[in-house]
Every structure is written in structure tokens, then in C-alpha cells.
Design brief:
The protein is an all-alpha fold. It is built from 15 helices and no strands. The chain has one domain. The protein is globular. It starts with 19 loop residues before the first helix and ends in a 16-residue tail after the last helix.
């Protein structure tokens, strides 16, 4: 079935209510193992409120949203097709994205598979709203590349601050602040960790919605020009925090949200 043939919202879609006990349960598991990405998807699903669904509806019914629906592009497959971007220059978004994914040992398909661990495709509502939420998931690593936030513990929670303003899912904001608190507790740092989250929110609020862009065209843009067009500012507080952590003898990438710390 073509995406354009699906209903905007399926009858079985849950569109309201936040389940705090479910959030706390899965956050506890995430604290035990910060690499357990499956828990993030559980938390996000438990906190999709009316605002997230309203944004989905507004984009889907927009001219751009309708065009992307008709095109039916498989974003993970497109992003993972590195040969497709072979003719892109060294300073394009594509070049930076590929370098990031190779360095981190990631793939767009891998993130999809992780999300399907907690919610197999056959269990999800068959509607255009799910297509939109999948689009947010599929562009996550592009967020890293365009914003400059790393995959270290502080980079991830700061990016969540940015992402919250892009998606308005309160679960993302919950993880951001709870993660920042854990970093502070584990490291004992004097770095302004919570200010880095606040900065991420400010940058995300000011920026254009990344998931609403023509991803194929975005990949071919010069990364500096793309950041300028999308109004993505530099994460200065985040970088200051990294410098402080380094001076204290702690690396953000070595901080475990579960309590382990390497100095």
C-alpha cells in the first residue's frame, strides 16, 4: 500500500496521555545501560502527547509533506547507500555524515532495527503519522552531524535538548535533564551541564525543522551553508563543558550514565 493511501491517523493510534510510571521504569533500565537504545524508544512512545501529534499532522498536510509522501523515499536506505554520495565534495553534509557514521560504526538501518526490537512494524499503527515519527527517527544521526554534538554522554543529552524543540516530545526532554543530572552526579564536574541542555533547547528552537527538509537535497549541500540556511548555531556551552571535563581529568565519552566513570 502506498503511503498516500494510508489514513492520516489510524483508529488504533493512541494520541493523548503521558504514562509516567512507564517512563520511570524504562529510564531506570537506560541508566543501568546507556547503550540500551531500546529504552529510549519506549520512553518516547510513552510520552507522545497532543503537541507531537499536532506537529505531525501539520507537516503531513503541508505541501512539502505531501510531496515527500508521494515520493516514498526510504530514508535509511538512501543514507546507507554511501556510493550514492561518492560525487559529493569533502565539505558536503554527505561527506561529513559518512565520516561520522564510519567513525562511530553506525548505520541508519541499525537504528531502525533497534526501534523494531521494542515495536515490530506489524505492531505499529498503519498511518501517515507513523511515517512522520519514523522520519524523526531516521534523521537522528543527521542531527548529530549538523549540530556538532558528539555521541559522548554530554553530547547525547545536549542533542536531546535540541531534539525536544524539534519534536515537542516531553520524553526526550525528560531523558535530557535526567541524563544531565546523572552526568553531574557521576563525574562531580563543575561544568555547567544543565546550561548545555538549555543551550541545546535554544538552538533547537531557533533552527528550522531538520526532519522537514528534503534529505536528498540536504545531503548535497555544503555543511556550512546548510547550517546557515537552517539557522543552526554553534554549541558553545557544550564545548566549554567538554573542556572543563577534560581539565578535570574526565572525558565525556567515558562517562557512563549507569554510574561508571573513567578518569
Amino acid at each position: 500500500m502506498a503511503l498516500t493511501d494510508l489514513p492520516l491517523v489510524a483508529p488504533d493510534r493512541r494520541t493523548s496521555g503521558i504514562r509516567p510510571l512507564k517512563v520511570l521504569h524504562h529510564f531506570g533500565k537506560l541508566v543501568d545501560d546507556k547503550e540500551d537504545t531500546e529504552q529510549v524508544f519506549h520512553i518516547i512512545e510513552a510520552t507522545k502527547g497532543r503537541r507531537s501529534h499536532a506537529q505531525a499532522r501539520d507537516f503531513i498536510t503541508s505541501e512539502a509533506g505531501q510531496r515527500f509522501l508521494r515520493d516514498g523515499v526510504d530514508i535509511p536506505a538512501m543514507l546507507d547507500d554511501h556510493a550514492r554520495w561518492a560525487d559529493c565534495g569533502p565539505n558536503t553534509v554527505a561527506a561529513h555524515y559518512i565520516a561520522f557514521m564510519k567513525r562511530e560504526g553506525l548505520s541508519a538501518a541499525g537504528l531502525v532495527a533497534e526501534s523494531h526490537r521494542w515495536a515490530p512494524p506489524e505492531s505499529l499503527p498503519k498511518d501517515q503519522t507513523q511515517w512522520y515519527f519514523d522520519r524523526l527517527r531516521d534523521t537522528h544521526d543527521l542531527f548529530h552531524v549538523l549540530t556538532g554534538y558528539g555521541r559522548d554522554a554530554l553530547g547525547e543529552v545536549s542533542l536531546l535538548g535540541f531534539s525536544y524543540q524539534q519534536s515537542h516530545n516531553t520524553g526526550i526532554l525528560f531523558i535530557a535533564y535526567a541524563g544531565a543530572r546523572q552526568i553531574k552526579k557521576v563525574s562531580g564536574t563543575k561544568a555547567p551541564i544543565f546550561a548545555a541542555i538549555k543551550e541545546g533547547r535554544r538552538l533547537g528552537r531557533a533552527a528550522a525543522k531538520i526532519a522537514h527538509q528534503d534529505i536528498a537535497a540536504l545531503m548535497r549541500e555544503d555543511i556550512g551553508e546548510a547550517r546557515k540556511r537552517l539557522n543552526i548555531g554553534k554549541p558553545e556551552v557544550y564545548r566549554q563543558c567538554l573542556a572543563i571535563l577534560h581539565a578535570e581529568g574526565t572525558l565525556s565519552e567515558d562517562i557512563s550514565l549507569g554510574g561508571a566513570q573513567a578518569a
